[in-house]
Structures are given as C-alpha cells and as structure tokens.
Write a structure and sequence with these properties.
Blueprint: E1 20-22, E2 25-32, E3 37-43, E4 48-53, E5 58-65, E6 68-72, E7 75-79, E8 84-87, E9 93-96, E10 103-110, H1 115-123, H2 130-139, E11 143-144
Antiparallel strand pairs: 1-2, 2-3, 3-10, 4-9, 4-11, 5-8, 5-10, 6-7, 6-9
C-alpha cells in the first residue's frame, strides 16, 4: 500500500471500477492508502452489519440518504442525512437499515489496515455460513460479537 495520491473520484465511480456485494450490501471503494480507506455503501432495507469491533481502526460514516439505526457501545441511536457517525477503535457497534428505503452513506477507516482485503474475501463468499464470515473477519482484524444470550425470563 502506498501514500494517498492527489486526484478526484467521480460520483458513481470507484477504484478500478470495483463494486463489491458484501452480504447483500453494495460497497464501492473510493480511496485507499496506508493511512485510510473509504467506500460508498448502499444498504438495502432490512440489511445489517452485526455488532462488531475494529480493534485497530477508527471508523466514520457520513450519511447521504435514508436512516441508519445503530447500537454504539450498548446504546441505541439513529443517523439521518448530514449526520456523521464516529466509531472509535475498540468500541462495539452494529448497523441496521430498518426503514423501507435504502441507506446510502460514505464510510472511512483510519488506518486502512486489512479491511480492503477483507471486503474482497467477503465479496467472494456470497453463500458463506456465519461462522465462516466471523473466522475470515477475525483474520482481517474485525471481531464480530456473539449474539446476546437469552435469559429465558419474561420481562
């Protein structure tokens, strides 16, 4: 990986015309260098990124369209167009597209670490079992959290 070069990535375009299908979501990489990695994401209604941690990266999401519900360090929140979501390294977070409209947003992480390589792996695993996705992600420095335990008690 190199340092960032000056330039312009046009709307609707990405690095080398790449468009990944990551578990039903569309990711288009916009910029990649050692210090950072950015991508445009379209999350269809009903899709999600399960709760996980980036132990070596800070992550940001700038909202362009739609509403994104999230759990950030155990607290429920939501973001709409113009909002910036800040996800510091080591803080658990999950993202949920619960409305009937797609969510469009710009993600970026700093430093880039191994996320670009992870997206290639996941793009090539469209029918992978959740355990496979968790294992591959862990090898690329993304740690998915186990689902909450059922207590069996009525509230």
């Amino acid at each position: 990986m190199t340092v960032m070069t000056a330039g312009l990535t046009k709307a609707g375009d990405g690095i080398d015309s790449i468009s990944w299908n990551i578990l039903g979501q569309t990711y288009v990489p916009k910029q990649l260098c050692e210090a950072s990695f950015s991508w445009h994401a379209t999350l269809p209604p009903g899709s999600m990124v399960p709760p996980h941690i980036h132990p070596t990266q800070d992550e940001f999401i700038y909202m362009l369209e739609g509403r994104l519900d999230l759990v950030l360090d155990g607290n429920e929140r939501f973001a709409e167009p113009g909002d910036l979501i800040r996800l510091p390294r080591g803080i658990p977070h999950g993202l949920f597209s619960k409305s009937d409209r797609p969510v469009k947003c710009l993600f970026w992480v700093t430093p880039a670490r191994r996320l670009y390589e992870l997206f290639w792996q996941l793009h090539n695993m469209p029918d992978a079992a959740p355990a496979e996705i968790v294992a591959v992600s862990a090898k690329h420095e993304i740690d998915f959290l186990p689902p909450p335990e059922e207590t069996g008690e009525a509230n």
